[in-house]
Amino acid sequence: MDIDAIMKELTLAEKASLVSGNSAWTVGPIEDKGVPEIFMCDGPYGLRKQENDSAEIYDSIDAVAFPTSVATAASFDRDLMYDIGVTLGKECQAEDVSVILGPAANIKRSPLCGRNFEYISEDPYVTGEMSAALINGVQSQNVGTSLKHFAVNNQETERMYVSADVDERTLREIYLAGFETAVKKSDPWTLMCSYNRINGTYASENKWLLTDVLRDEWGYDGLVMSDWGAVSDRIRGIAAGLDLEMPGSNGVNDALIVEAVRSGRLAEADLDKAVRNVLKLMEKYHSGKREEVFDRDKDHEKAVHAEEESIVLLKNDEVLPLRSDEKIAIIGGFAANPRFQGGGSSHINAHNIVSAVSVMDSYGSCVYSEGFPYDGDRTTDEKMSAAVEAAKNADKVVVFAGLPDLYESEAYDREHMRLPECQNILIEELLKLSKPVIIVLHNGSPVEMPWAEYVDGIVEAYLGGEGVGEAVMNVLYGKVNPSGKLAESFPKKLEDNPSYLNFPGQNHRCNYAEGIFVGYRYYDTKKTDVLFPFGYGLSYTEFEYSNLKTESFGSADNGPIDINSDKIKVSVDVTNVGKVAGKEVVQLYISDKTKAAIRPVHELKGFEKISLNPGETGTVYFELDKRSFAWFNEAVSDWYVASGEYVIEIGKSSRDIVLCESVELKGDAQVLPVIDMDVQIGDLLKNDVTREVVMKVMKEEIDKFTGSDGMDMESLDPMTYNMLQYLPIRTLRSFTYITNERVESIVAALKEEVEKVK
Ligand code: BGC
After folding, report:
1. What percent of the chain has pLDDT over 90?
2. To test the ligand 1 pocket, which listed residue (26, 227, 413) has its Cβ within 8 A of the most ligand atoms?
């Protein structure tokens, strides 16, 4: 495609028509101008390809449902994400899909968000790394992705209207950081803006977001499309950097665009930019179009494998793995009808749904009794009694519990964090039999577990894709050693969650008052007990960590490590000290000890998954750079590292840190206080430049005031010294009786010093 030539040929009306969908899923073609058509379909973990313009969400092709993102996130396995991406990319090529709409990289702020199953983590580092791996996989097949929903779409309540009110530091550190990593590490062909407003402005019209941050700062040059129906004012949107409106507006906005260009309300150059981005996307896909076969049976096996790598073993009081000679009672409707995906636009018409019941006979001696339904919150006494009877004859009881479809979906949020009460009641009844009880969970987001202390095993299967039944049985029977870890915290109760008092907001605004303290950043800093912490997950083997080493490379000599030029290499040895082969997710957290800013007690800045045979030791490596230590300092509008001590922690979860080492960093220049008559003495003391001036001045004043010679601030008694911290400099007038001229001259001297170093 010769984009320059096409641009010259297109009329204004044709240009306007190219920046919106031609149907629900297509853009273009304009055949006589050499503009092809492109076709998109939902993701993110399977193809929801709708072959006609039907608004019916379930009317899509037969496709393979991979585990949802909440599950694959728990694999903490970038290679697995990449491989899933490659498979999806091939499926798209086979189906002539140019762009698959995913991954969804919004942060799990509240366990109630109806769409948490589609999102990756409460942590932006995991979100960014796993998104980038998936995108790189898909795009390696010359198929585009759409990183969504940009940005701050963390609830479904009023999702198309609510304003997410968030301060800039929180935006940068929590809600944008995952997108930033994905953009920089994988260059998604497209991004999808979210429905909501951010601090009052729709994402689809937000120039700060779509142009200043995304393009000018992060260097993105792909296409930005709207979420389906997210456009309010199309003209403002184009000017802000929104290239493509999906699914279109039946020509209404096309006409407005033409009129706006004619009247001068919209610069034609802005429209041209958007059109070019559409053409570039078309050219990318069509220049790499190739033949592929969508082998559903083969891809089904990949979906099973992906779930095996993602299942998280949360509790095991020596009851798992099950042995084939044990009599097992399998209870719960989810065993026969697993809930393996969430509701809404990511819904797949799954090719081959495998339930535990359909394969149980090949594992051992299992009987099934429904006990409670998979699709509702009520059961009958008969079903309950039958389940208890079945359990009486068994050695162990495995309950397949979970959230019915209606409980969590795109477009609305959950109201509570509980399982249907009938499930909890039956579990309690089964516990009375004094037999080992193991719970397998099918849910897209944390649930309260009133029985957690009393059951013997808990297996978190999440919404594990169409092969979930087989994957779960493989884990239960030890054919697969579980290696997933939670990419989110499980609070004990909803009220413990930091967003609790401000979710989902009121008067169409949601105040993100907890700021950067999302998930474990809050629980760990507050030392709040959780049911299961972030990063937690058990194995059938055990791992020991040793030999933590840190080494800086770059220009550093013996002093503090200059983090603006140097990097730090961290290595740690891990040994499988158990009897079976297994995989461990080694986590690296950083704890800032400088006290320069309010920060979480620690933050995840690295993870690596390692596979080890019994007795084997392997080494994992991490590389840390400035960004690993930085926070977003609004005073300088940039990422900032204070000089001082940081601790590198290596952990099995955010609550199980097993090794740590402290490093001394030389960071960024100290932030200069704003100098005026109101500046506090304490702020002046914190900065080396102003400290010198103020120490000198104070010495003169103290001498004058006390009649001493040689006293300075440091020789003051600690109480007086402390009290001085919070005195604005002007108050010296009142407390040391100096003249206003003298205060003004001190301020002038301070300003002069500050100017010198600016
Ligand atoms: C969802 C998107 C999805 C789009 C197209 C929207 O309602 O928010 O995630 O890609 O529909 O189905």
Report:
1. 93
2. 227
